[in-house]
Write a structure and sequence with these properties.
mainly alpha; 0% strand; Helix-turn-helix domain-containing protein; HTH_58_Actinobacteria-type; rod-shaped; 189 residues
Length: 189
């Protein structure tokens, strides 16, 4: 059974098509107009068409409504990308959702996506300072009498890595100890 149409001159007539169009173009959805006006969904749609309103798709409405939030996210992601050397995968985890969305947001914020090699160079430059500090620390401990195997065990690095860091720090190495039988001086058979 269909409801009776409202009598002429009622408050539903006061909600004009131009007023609905203005609210809709301001970002309101059809569902919100239905809730605030008390009109049926079909009546709201008819009045919007009557006023010559160009209807949006749902994604256009979301983009329109989330415009400022999207811009803020894009700026924050660009800062992480350019200032901290974050990858697209890290940007996706920071709020973009996917690598593709992160790339799109980065471009919207005026950023330029890097190649993998550029990202690796940025990361290695940041790690270089940490490694240099570690190498200086290992050198000081080695020159104080610690052995390479002891340093490797303390730092949880391989012996080869400790040697490499010591060489990078310019450490003058002590002679290696020979383990095993002593060599005899003299003629070889």
């Amino acid at each position: 059974m269909n409801p009776q149409p409202p009598p002429e001159g009622s408050e539903t007539e006061a909600i004009t098509a131009p007023a609905l169009r203005e609210q809709y173009e301001g970002g309101a959805t059809v569902a919100e107009l239905v809730a605030t006006s008390g009109l049926s969904y079909g009546t709201v749609i008819n009045r919007l068409h009557e006023a010559g309103t160009v209807m949006r798709t749902s994604w256009q409405t979301r983009r329109m409504r989330d415009g400022q939030a999207r811009r803020n996210l894009a700026v924050r992601l660009r800062h992480l990308y350019e200032q901290h050397g974050a990858t697209l995968t890290e940007l996706a985890a920071a709020g973009a959702g996917t690598r593709r969305a992160a790339r799109r947001l980065l471009i919207e914020a005026g950023g330029t996506p890097r190649t993998t090699q550029q990202t690796l160079r940025i990361r290695s430059a940041a790690d270089a300072a940490v490694r240099k500090k570690l190498a200086a620390s290992l050198r000081a401990r080695y020159e104080a009498g610690a052995t390479v195997p002891e340093l490797a065990k303390e730092c949880n690095y391989s012996i080869a890595t400790v040697y490499r860091l010591l060489h990078q720090a310019g450490t003058r190495m002590r002679p290696q100890h020979r383990h095993g039988p002593a060599r005899r001086a003299g003629k070889r058979a």
